[in-house]
């Protein structure tokens, strides 16, 4: 090799276009070259990131010919990826989509702004019919998320970005009914990205998105991990409308749904007044209740065998809905929202008041198996409820001040009944959070500490 062709070291700028061309020529799949092993694709990604092969930028002076060669190599790279994405072979298409998502992250700002409309259309087509490859759909969702995340960093194209985001929402919502768990997970992750970065694009899809999300986690066929993702996504939906009313209405409907589920779960285990009090704060006397969450009504459901229904449907649903409340209280919103503190605290007290014991008048109407099931699941519900109480304290802030003394009494009373270590630890943690939020002095905090230890 001639001396002029040698590089100074691994940091020589001339090395970058050479390495990129070598990858395109020798390692990327093409029509007459088989798909490489996944490990090879991983090595390609590693090389690109380690050497910054897609950045088209350097620090300090550089030979213009080097930059021209780099631009030409990038053109070849992009052309090959677009060709792979447009192809009919699912494995090669998948490789092209994965690398196009990487390109969205790593390429220069000028190239991204010039090319993103074309890349968007290519990726969008892969989550719509007639595309039927599950792993192509999953990788397309991930690549679209990369594209929109990068696009969010360019305020000068915000209008165009919002328009593209709006075009993606409907196809993504359709993916939520896909048979593949991986596709649904990819879709819900992308949906969270869209509503977080470009909330206005979700405005006209609000009701459709709510219905689709609720129907998925209410079905009882989702894993807990997936259900948590749905809860997180639903908690983000009010951002699409950006007003207090939308946030308050969704919170009200979620709390009503939780209480309705508790009616069935806690039948024979609580006083009638608990349910009445909780609902009174949500639907004042003389007012009509809002439409049910997701347009679903428990009265429309088929009745499963009681024990199976409680364990497989009611408890998971209540947990997911409580997680959604927690997320709504923790999320930031463009406007100040009014937290329904009394309704939330009534729900907390309702759940924590149930310990599995029966009223004497109810004993003839229940079996020991039913009571055993309730008692086995109550610690889970109590932990979820204590998490909700933590979120209330942190999220309501000043709105909690009129109720702070009542919350402290609730915690003290519950602490005297709680025997499980996890519950007692959680209560102690919540009490410290409450006292800190109230701004009490160190002496009073220590006094509460010793009081709890003595119980």
UniProtKB/TrEMBL annotation:
A GO BP annotation: rRNA processing
The keyword Nucleus is assigned to this record: yes
Principal subcellular localisation of the protein: nucleus
Keyword Nucleus: yes
Keywords from the named record: Nucleus
Compartments it resides in: Nucleus
Chain ranges of the Pre-rRNA-processing protein RIX1 N-terminal domain: 23-222
InterPro entries from the UniProt entry: ARM-like, ARM-type_fold, RIX1_N
Cellular component terms per the entry's GO annotation: nucleus
SUPFAM superfamilies given in the database record: ARM repeat
Superkingdom of origin: Eukaryota
PANTHER family: PROLINE-, GLUTAMIC ACID- AND LEUCINE-RICH PROTEIN 1
Family: Belongs to the RIX1/PELP1 family.
Name listed for the protein in its UniProt record: Pre-rRNA-processing protein RIX1 N-terminal domain-containing protein
Source organism: Acorus gramineus (Dwarf sweet flag)
């Amino acid at each position: 090799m001639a001396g002029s062709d040698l590089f100074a070291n691994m940091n020589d700028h001339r090395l970058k276009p050479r390495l990129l061309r070598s990858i395109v020529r020798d390692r990327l799949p093409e029509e007459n070259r088989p798909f490489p092993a996944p490990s090879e694709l991983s090595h390609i990604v590693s090389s690109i990131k380690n050497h910054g092969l897609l950045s088209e930028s350097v620090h300090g002076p550089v030979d213009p010919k080097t930059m021209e060669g780099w631009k030409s190599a990038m053109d070849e790279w992009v052309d090959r990826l677009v060709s792979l994405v447009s192809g009919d072979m699912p494995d090669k298409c998948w490789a092209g989509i994965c690398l196009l998502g990487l390109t969205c992250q790593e390429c220069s700002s000028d190239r991204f702004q010039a090319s993103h409309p074309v890349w968007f259309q290519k990726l969008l087509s892969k989550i719509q019919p007639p595309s039927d490859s599950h792993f192509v759909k999953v990788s397309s969702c991930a690549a679209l998320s990369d594209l929109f995340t990068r696009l969010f960093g360019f305020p000068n194209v915000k209008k165009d970005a919002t328009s593209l985001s709006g075009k993606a929402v409907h196809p993504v919502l359709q993916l939520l009914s896909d048979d593949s768990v991986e596709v649904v997970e990819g879709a819900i992750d992308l949906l969270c990205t869209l509503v977080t970065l470009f909330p206005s694009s979700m405005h006209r899809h609000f009701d459709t998105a709510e219905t689709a999300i609720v129907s998925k986690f209410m079905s009882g066929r989702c894993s807990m991990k997936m259900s948590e993702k749905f809860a997180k996504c639903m908690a983000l939906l009010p951002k699409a409308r950006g007003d207090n009313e939308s946030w308050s209405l969704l919170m009200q409907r979620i709390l009503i749904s939780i209480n309705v589920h508790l009616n069935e779960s806690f039948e024979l285990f609580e006083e009638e007044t608990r349910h009445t009090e909780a609902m009174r704060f949500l639907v004042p006397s003389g007012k009509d209740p809002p439409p049910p969450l997701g347009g679903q009504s428990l009265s429309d459901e088929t009745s499963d065998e009681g024990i199976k229904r409680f364990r497989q449907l009611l408890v998971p649903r209540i947990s997911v809905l409580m997680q959604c409340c927690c997320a709504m209280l923790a999320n930031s919103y463009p406007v100040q929202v009014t937290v329904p503190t009394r309704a939330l605290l009534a729900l907390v007290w309702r759940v924590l008041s149930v310990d599995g014991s029966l009223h004497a008048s109810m004993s003839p109407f229940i079996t020991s198996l039913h009571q055993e099931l309730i008692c086995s699941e109550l610690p889970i519900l109590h932990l979820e409820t204590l998490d909700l109480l933590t979120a209330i304290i942190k999220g309501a802030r000043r709105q909690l001040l009129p109720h702070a003394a009542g919350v402290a009494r609730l915690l003290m009373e519950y602490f005297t009944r709680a025997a499980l270590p996890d519950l007692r630890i959680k209560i102690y943690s919540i009490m410290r959070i409450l006292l800190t939020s109230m701004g009490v002095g160190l002496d009073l905090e220590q006094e509460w500490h010793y009081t709890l230890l003595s119980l």
